Amino acid sequence: MILMRHGQSEFNVVYSATRTDPGIEDPSLTTDGRSQAADAALALHENDAPITRIIASPYTRALETAHIVADRLDVPITVEPLVRERFAWSCDVGTHASDLTPQWPAVDFPPLEERWWSRREESHADVRVRADRFHRIMVDDPAHTETLVVSHWGFIRAMTGLELTNAAMVRVRLDPAVEVVSHPHP
Fold this sequence. Notes:
The protein has one domain: 3-Layer(aba) Sandwich (Rossmann fold). Helices cover 38% and strands 12% of the residues. The chain has helices at residues 10-18, 31-46, 60-73, 97-103, 124-139, 153-160, and strands at 2-5, 53-56, 77-79, 147-151, 169-173, 179-180. The chain starts with a strand and ends in a 6-residue tail after the last strand.
């Protein structure tokens, strides 16, 4: 399985420069973020990565990244709320399900609660619980070795201990524990 952090978002730009929360809810990708996602898609394509599906977080920045990659690789996208970001900043306020699903008609959405993100700040331990749950689901999924997961800094850190930059990817082996088999690369 490959874990990929979404491309640069509007939130990332402001936060990186100021180290303060700019108050941007469910931000979109920047032009650079879209370019990062396209470069990652090209790298996956050129390396003949055996990707047959993408699992994406329901946040807009992850869906935009997944869409760019899916278009290049011609694979379907399925949303999985377990791989969402740790709820701690304004960017972690999502888009309501009734607004989100019509924006992405080609994406396979599971039944989502109207407000699918957390109602309170999540601890790192909370995110590790979600990551462990996702790991247990995926280890039993025969297609996990052909899956790209487009997620977030906090979730990927909970799964691997690594802090990925925007659009960076890391390949992991899931059985029995999560094991990093290739180092992050953009």
